[in-house]
Amino acid sequence: MTQTLYRNLEKSDQMIGRTQPPLELPYTGGGEIIHLPAPTSVTIPPIDLRDAIQHRESRRSYRKEPITIAELSFLLWCTQGVKKVTTGEYTFRTVPSAGARHAFETYVLVNNVEGITPGLYRYLAIENQLAEVNRERGIADSMFQACLYQQFVKENAVTVIWVAVPYRMTWRYSERGYRYLFLDAGHACQNLYLGAEAVGCGVCAIGAFDDEAMNQLLGIDGETQFCIYAATVGKMTHRK
Asked: Which of 54, 72, 127, 170 is found 20 to 30 A from 202 (Cα to Cα)?
């Protein structure tokens, strides 16, 4: 932590004039691209914000019914939805981020979503699309194992995984940026919790996972990109 103190920081790459990294990593997988419906297409019954906050809790039991593709689009928009892109420099999104860096790529393991083949996808937030990453048989079991055999990971509709791209943050903030990554992950997950309350879904955040197994499953190196947080989503069984 001492390396991230202001008095110990080196000049950031932004300060010395190096080119800004991309706002979103390009998709180069060559798989199916799914165009998600507009987040506004999901019908949301009126819900009081105070009520949503009051009833928010981590839910590990889900009904065995799918969520709709419109609901998935809405929930992903809640966590990383892009409201505006400004001249290639910033994205303004539905969650706060230090300096509007938004240094995450969002992955989704689909188990039970209407109209989407089960498998691992990446959310292309600027385009509002899902890009196929891995549909191999057994991918859900691999996620279950990477999440340390927590049973509710096998029984949800989707698992959302946030992958940090640290250079997108440290380019501006040097070593201090590592602190901001973890703060920003909390912002994204809390929005998922509140958005899920609006569509009758439960969420459980996951910080207990095998880092190496998770990074390998996602096809990332654990350094220039690494899994920072995850959460399960499914139709809630009841509300207390």
From this structure: 127
Picking from 31, 47, 34, the residue whose alpha carbon sits closest to that of residue 76 is 34
* Nearest Cα to Cα of residue 109 among 6, 221, 206: 206
Q: Mind listing the pLDDT tens digit for each residue in 174-227?
A: 999 999 999 999 999 999 999 999 999 999 999 999 999 999 999 999 999 999
Structure tokens at 155: 């029984």
Q: How far out from the chain centre does Cα 99 lie?
A: 19
Token pair in block for residue 17: 């004039």
Which of the 8 DSSP states describes residue 88? T
The 226-235 sheet, strands edge to edge? 33-35, 129-134, 119-124, 104-110, 158-164, 226-235, 201-206
- Two tokens, residue 50: 């105070």
